[in-house]
UniProtKB/TrEMBL annotation:
5-aminolevulinate 1 binds at residues 209, 221. One of its GO terms (molecular function) is porphobilinogen synthase activity. It catalyses: 2 5-aminolevulinate = porphobilinogen + 2 H2O + H(+). This is Delta-aminolevulinic acid dehydratase. It comes from Nonomuraea cavernae. 5-aminolevulinate 2 binds at residues 279, 318. InterPro entries: ALAD, ALAD_AS, Aldolase_TIM. The gene is hemB. Pathway: Porphyrin-containing compound metabolism; protoporphyrin-IX biosynthesis; coproporphyrinogen-III from 5-aminolevulinate: step 1/4. Homooctamer. Catalyzes an early step in the biosynthesis of tetrapyrroles. Binds two molecules of 5-aminolevulinate per subunit, each at a distinct site, and catalyzes their condensation to form porphobilinogen. SUPFAM superfamilies: Aldolase. It comes from the Bacteria. It holds the Pfam family ALAD.
Amino acid sequence: MSAEFPVARPRRLRRNAAMRRMVAGTRPHPADLILPMFVKENIDEPAPVASMPGVFQHTRDSLRKAAHEAAEAGVGGLILFGIPAVKDARGSAGDDPDGILQVALRDVSAEVGDTLVVMADTCLDEFTDHGHCGILTDAGDVDNDATLERYASIAVAQARAGSQMVAPSGMMDGQVGAIRAALDADGFADVPILAYSAKYASAFYGPFRDAAECAPRFGDRSTHQQDPAGPLEEALREVRLDLAEGADAVMVKPALAYLDVIRQFRDTVDVPVAAYQVSGEYAMIEAAAANGWVDRERMIMESIVAIKRAGADLILTYWATEVARAL
Ligand code: PBG
């Protein structure tokens, strides 16, 4: 061993903050971030979501205010979820022009629609009294093709209300194609579809079911969402189908437990790849931080950087405004 050993010293580029900053390969930008927001019909005050400290079910007013804050912080987009006062088996509030989500889309688009991208989650679970993402058969199964008609109608209602992009999250077969055809037929050929392509049947959605009040009354979503143990090829097949049906951007969900899928998508497709850092990912870090067990801000930023490094162009995160400010 020569006296100069080691010649290669990776530590040289880590010597100080300026050096590390200059060579950093992963630089999340505020415009990469999309903030999911909840708006509830007929409430007077924003309601905190117990399992997601810092997240609220908004009133129309508090939603507008939070949307402004996100826009001022430079966030790239908002994705809205609506919680109606009345639910029924077919989720009628979902495509009612006066339904809470449509009202909120009009409100928010009018205020910040020129600054950021206002979009809607296109699904039925927030609107159905049984909490499932579709129309049920008498046997209690989700009827794929009957559900597609509802999604198509909901997407059109959302576009009419000013949604600049729609994001179907129900994992029905053919949902992207059905929505594309309906949007085109209604004069919305310009409205892009962000497809939840690889969406896993995940325990990480737990807190969301409080936030959106959409826990299924019986059963679960494992007949339509992907099995976490399913082969990677299944995710690739889903994304190929969505692209063939006209998806403009694709999503992996959840994010942190599925970084390999994000990377595979980035290496395979030629459209933007989004990743959804879901409610359970948020709750885990907030809860650990509230106990004083972790450094909250560092852990949030590290998780965002990891998702970006894995290949996500866009990141849906409940911390979007805070992270955008920090960047
Ligand atoms: C379905 C939908 C869900 C989430 C986003 N869209 C719930 C589900 O599939 O059960 C979860 C988001 C999160 O956990 O943060 N409309």
